[in-house]
């Protein structure tokens, strides 16, 4: 399982390459596809950056079981415990949280308090027709502002 790992190392990649490269039945999964975590003064590689390196080495793609994969919500929708028309996906990352909401048929709300929420949204809105699945239905600067929508 590849997830965010602030202690990712060459030694860990060697070990993973050995397991995945010598055993085609070895399950290869990822928690999410976050490319980068942006902070005001710097950026940090996200899980996807680490995952692409490993996928390149082993020539296999990981199964993705976190957002934005709709499979993680499919059973809840099928069982009726989640009704897409009555469910709001709230998140702070367009390319993960908002995409997940759209993939599941949910309404979406982007909260601007994430480290790069507003920056990412502004980039996406530069080409809205190409980025339609990343555009939220609603936006609030902070979760406390949700009362303005109700």
From TrEMBL:
InterPro entries: HAD-like_sf, HAD_sf. One of its GO terms (molecular function) is phosphatase activity. GO terms for cellular component: cytoplasm. It holds the Pfam family Hydrolase_like. SUPFAM superfamilies: HAD-like. It comes from the Eukaryota. This is Pyridoxal phosphate phosphatase. It comes from Ceratitis capitata.
């Amino acid at each position: 399982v590849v997830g965010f790992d602030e202690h990712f190392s060459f030694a860990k990649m060697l070990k993973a390459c050995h397991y995945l490269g010598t055993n085609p039945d070895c399950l290869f999964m990822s928690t999410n596809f976050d490319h980068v975590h942006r902070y005001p003064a710097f950026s940090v590689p996200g899980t996807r950056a680490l995952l692409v390196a490993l996928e390149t080495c082993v020539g296999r793609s990981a199964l993705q079981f976190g957002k934005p994969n709709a499979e993680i919500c499919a059973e809840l929708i099928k069982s009726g415990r989640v009704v897409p028309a009555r469910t709001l996906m709230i998140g702070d990352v367009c390319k993960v949280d908002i995409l997940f909401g759209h993939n599941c048929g949910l309404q979406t709300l982007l909260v601007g308090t994430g480290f790069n929420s507003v920056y990412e949204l502004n980039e996406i809105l530069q080409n809205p027709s190409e980025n339609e699945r990343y555009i939220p239905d609603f936006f609030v600067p902070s979760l406390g502002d949700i009362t303005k929508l109700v």
